[in-house]
Specification:
By secondary structure, the protein is an all-alpha fold. It is built from 2 helices and no strands. It holds the Pfam family FixQ.
Length: about 55
């Protein structure tokens, strides 16, 4: 096995991993979880006033 074969295998494996991540991220089953996580920065925390000071 020469270096070019190894590079080809790594390239194909990386592309397959990339496609897997894209499919996972755009999955309809995950949409609710991702929408909920996207709203976390806007959720109000208990005990924190608008000025940022704790009660």
């Amino acid at each position: 096995m020469d270096i070019n074969t190894l590079r080809t295998i790594v390239t194909v494996a990386s592309f397959a991993l990339f496609i897997g991540i894209v499919v996972w991220a755009w999955s309809r089953r995950r949409r609710g979880q991702f929408d909920e996580a996207a709203m976390l920065p806007f959720a109000e925390k208990e005990g924190v006033e608008a000025s940022g000071e704790r009660k």
